[in-house]
Amino acid sequence: MNGPGGGATVSGGDDAGRRAVSQGRRSERHLGWWLCAPAALVMVLVTGWPIVYSVLLSLQRYDLRFPDRKGWIGVENYTTVLTSAFWWNAFAVTAVVTVVSVAIELVLGMVIALVMYRTLVGRGLIRTVVLIPYGIVTVAAAYGWKYAWTPDTGWLAGLLPGGQAPLTEHWPAIGIVILAEVWKTTPFMALLLMAGLALVPEDTLKAASMDGAGAWQRFRLITLPLMRPAILAALLFRTLDAFRIFDNIFVLTNGAQNTAAVSVIAYHNLIGGLNLGIGSTMSVLIVVTVAVIAFVFVKVLGTSAPAQATGGKR
Amino acid sequence: MSRHRDRTAGWAVVDLVVVVCALIPVVWIAALSFKAPSTISDGRFWPTTWTWSNYAGIFKNDDFVRGLINSIGIGVISTLIAIVIGTMAAYAVARLEFPGKSLVLGISLLIAMFPQISLVTPLFQIERGLGLFNTWPGLILPYITFALPLTIYTLSTFFREIPWDLEKAAKMDGATPFQAFRLVIAPLAAPGVVTTAILAFILCWNDFLFSISLTSSSAARTAPATISFFSGSSQFEDPAGSIAAAAIVITIPIVLFVLLFQRRIVSGLTSGAVKG
């Protein structure tokens, strides 16, 4: 698709001479570099230097409230963070929210994908409506959930017996965080899975049906295996995305009742504590964790890098 | 025939469940935003008396209006820049052979998956050093960076589907290269570019983390971050109504995009995934 045809267009002719071809190659190569240069430059400048800088900061004692005590301290910040109960609690919360919400999203997303793909009525309507949770600003939706579960104010809190305040208790609050996360991101999962459903040939399903396979058998033995790449890619994106959860927790509990995720405590160390050393150490640890998750998906589960790196972030 | 009708009815019920689940939380915020302050905590779903006072209130709040202007300005500028340089890169990726192509795609993929919080701490310090902290460019730079992977991937998929031979045909029919581009290629590429721009704008419009971390006043703080500062502010006795109204205001552009461009957004979000 992007073979020599592209080169011919760029060199502006179809001259068959060998020199013209190699010259065309070279000018195609240069054009490619020039066209990619601005994008590559911005991406590398805005992420590359901060990453290096954050590794450097993580090796220093650097608290903006006590700037004169700045100094190199090796891995002391890492020991501090990795022996801190706060960090491990946040890590556990993040892990629970990630695993539970992605698992629910996979099942619900698959159901919604099937509905969007197979429904006989209102296909346009349902595809439109499903995009609204995907598009809505996470903070706006999170306030909706917060007030819905606030005693006296909320319609959902009113359904609970005895005026409970679920957001002020550890597990109920985590449950609400998961609910908010699932509502917001299931549509994205469903859209990716629907694209995977389109890859399953109708003929194969029809043939299996003729051979007497029921709906569930067709789904489990034909659809699921054929969708494996799409499912793994969607899982990879959603897992990494869920792991960086911030907005929902910030609005719903702001980390109260030990519900902070790693992003939330890193933020509080930076903006509340002004501790650049510790904040950067957490940043580096979060990147390392994300890298491990991606590695497991790609190497162990064999997820192929999808041609789709989009819209995962709300 | 009746079997067919049963199945239609079955699907209608399933559709209805999905629609209700997707919309109820949004309808709830809207209902809350029309409640008078005295009835906010009556625990009902619908307002007993409808009022516009929450909306009037937030538009009298300079910080919120400023936040909206910041959101629109920063979102539009970031989207435009990301689209221009992203289109160039996507064209190169889709149409040209050159060493380093997979590197560009690899970097994009890494950034798409990168945890933003890990950029916030160093960017906070770097931007304070460069004088970019609490300014529009200070937010535009990270927004472009995170919009670029989406732009490059989505647009390169669109570009691969364009029948580029038409360009050659137009030239053979005597069109100049510019005419061929303007009359043949641009109309074919435009839907993809528009779709990608919408997705990129939604991405910028949605950001919260960069906006609360890299700003310190309403000079550059975007609307979602401004809303989070409503709580406890003195001019709002009970911020719930105002927050709900503000949440609805920042949701309206998204709803409009979704209603106008539903089909394109779906194809934009999924086209790449199909190619695997």
In brief:
Chain A has helices at 4-11, 18-58, 76-82, 85-118, 123-135, 138-148, 170-197, 202-210, 215-243, 247-252, 262-272, 276-300, and strands at 60-61, 71-72. Chain A is an all-alpha fold and 314 residues long.
Tally of domains of chain A: 2
Which shape of chain B, going by the Cα principal axes? globular
Structural class by helix and strand composition of chain A: mainly alpha
How many extended strands of chain B? 0
**Class by helix and strand content of chain B?**
mainly alpha
* Helix/strand order of chain A, N-terminal first: HHEEHHHHHHHHHH
CATH architecture of the largest domain in chain A: Orthogonal Bundle
Q: Helical element count of chain A? A: 12
Helix content of chain B: over 70%
Number of strands of chain A: 2
Q: Give the helix proportion of chain A (percent range).
A: over 70%
Low-confidence stretches of chain A: 1-15, 306-314
Number of individual domains of chain B: 1
- The CATH architecture of chain B can be named as Orthogonal Bundle
Which band does the percent of strand residues of chain B land in?
under 5%
End-to-end distance of chain A, in Å?
32 Å
Number of helices of chain B: 11
CATH class of the largest domain in chain A: Mainly Alpha
What is the succession of H and E elements of chain B?
HHHHHHHHHHH
Topology summary:
The complex is a heterodimer of chains A (314) and B (276).
Chain A: H1 4-11, H2 18-58, E1 60-61, E2 71-72, H3 76-82, H4 85-118, H5 123-135, H6 138-148, H7 170-197, H8 202-210, H9 215-243, H10 247-252, H11 262-272, H12 276-300
Antiparallel strand pairs in A: 1-2
Helix pairs in contact in A: 1-2, 2-12, 3-12, 4-7, 4-9, 5-7, 7-9, 8-9, 9-12, 11-12
Chain B: H1 2-33, H2 53-60, H3 62-95, H4 101-113, H5 117-130, H6 136-161, H7 165-172, H8 177-206, H9 209-213, H10 223-228, H11 239-275
Helix pairs in contact in B: 1-11, 2-11, 3-6, 3-8, 4-6, 6-8, 6-11, 7-8, 8-11
